[in-house]
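Ring-cleaving dioxygenase: C-alpha cells wanted.
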Amino acid sequence: MELKGIHHLSAITAKADKNFDFYTKILGLRLVKKTVNQDDTSVYHLFYGDEKGNPGTELTFFEIPMAGRNHDGVNSISETSLRVANDQALVYWKKRFEDFNVDHEDISKQTGRSALSFKDFEGQRLTLVSDENNDGVKGGTPWEKSPVPQEYGIRGLGPIKLTVRDAQKTINVLTEIMGFREKGRYPSSVKGQPDILVFETGEGGTGAEIHLEERNDLPQERLGRGGVHHVAFRVDNEEELREWITKIQAVGFHNSGYVDRFYFRSLYFREPNGILFELATDGPGFDTDEDINHLGETLALPPFFESQREQIEAKLKPLNTRR
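Answer:
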C-alpha cells in the first residue's frame, strides 16, 4: 500500500470557454475529457493532461459560473506545479508568457530545480518546474498535436504546495497514515515564517512531492475561482483502494467510502486542517469510452448518467472543444 505520486488536481473556474482556451491554446495541454461534475451535473468538469491523460498528468476544473474570486489563505492547496523536460524549456515558456501577456515571474531555483511561477486569467497559482535532474516518477508524454513543441510540452503535475495553520497535524497524516517520508526543507519567502517542508512518496521526485508551508499570518482561505478544490494521490488498483478505505475508516476520518468515477475509482477524506484529499486508482482511464484520437471533443457521460443525457445537455452552455 504505497501511494505512487500525485494523480490529479481539481480546481475551480468560472468560465469554461476561457479556461479551455488558456489551458489548450497557451499551455498546450490536451483536453482529454469534457464531462460533468458527477456531484452536480449542471456544470462542466474538464480534464486536461498529456497525450491520453495518464495518471499524474491530469489538471481538472469544475466550472462554477457564479463563483467569486478565491481569497488566498491557510488550510488550502496554495500552488500547483507543472513539469517540463529541462531548464531550456523554461526559457521557451518565459518567452511564450511574454508573447501571450501571461502574468509571470522570473526563472528561479526551488529545491534545486529551476522554476517559473505564473498565473492564469483567474489568478490560479501555477509554477513550471524543470525535470532536468529528476530521478523519480517519470513524466507523461506531451501531445504531439499541441500548439507547444513536444520537447517543451508540459509532462504532468509536479510538487503540490499545501499552506496550513498547524503543520504538525498534516505531517502526522502524510507520514503516519499515508506513508510519505520527509525529504528536506527550504526557506519560506516570507520573513519570520518556518521553513517549507518537502515530503515524497513512491519513487519520489518531481511527480511525487508535497510541499508543506505553515503560516500564522494569513486568514482562512475562501475557495472560489482561481482556487483549488482537492488533490488526488495515485493508488495502483481497485483492490489496493479498498485496503486504503479500511485504513482511513479505522483511524476515524470522515470519508466518502468507495466512489466510482468510471474513469477511476476514488476515496475522499479531509485531513485535520480541512484540505480535501482523494485517493484514486490509475485506471481504467480516459480512453474507456472515447476513441484515443478524439478525446474531449464531445460531452462524455459515464454509463450511470447516459439515460439523463438530454436533460444534462439542456442545462449546459455549449462549449466547442472540437479541434
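The mean pLDDT is 97. The domain at 6-315 is CATH 3.10.180.10 (2,3-Dihydroxybiphenyl 1,2-Dioxygenase; domain 1).

Cheers.
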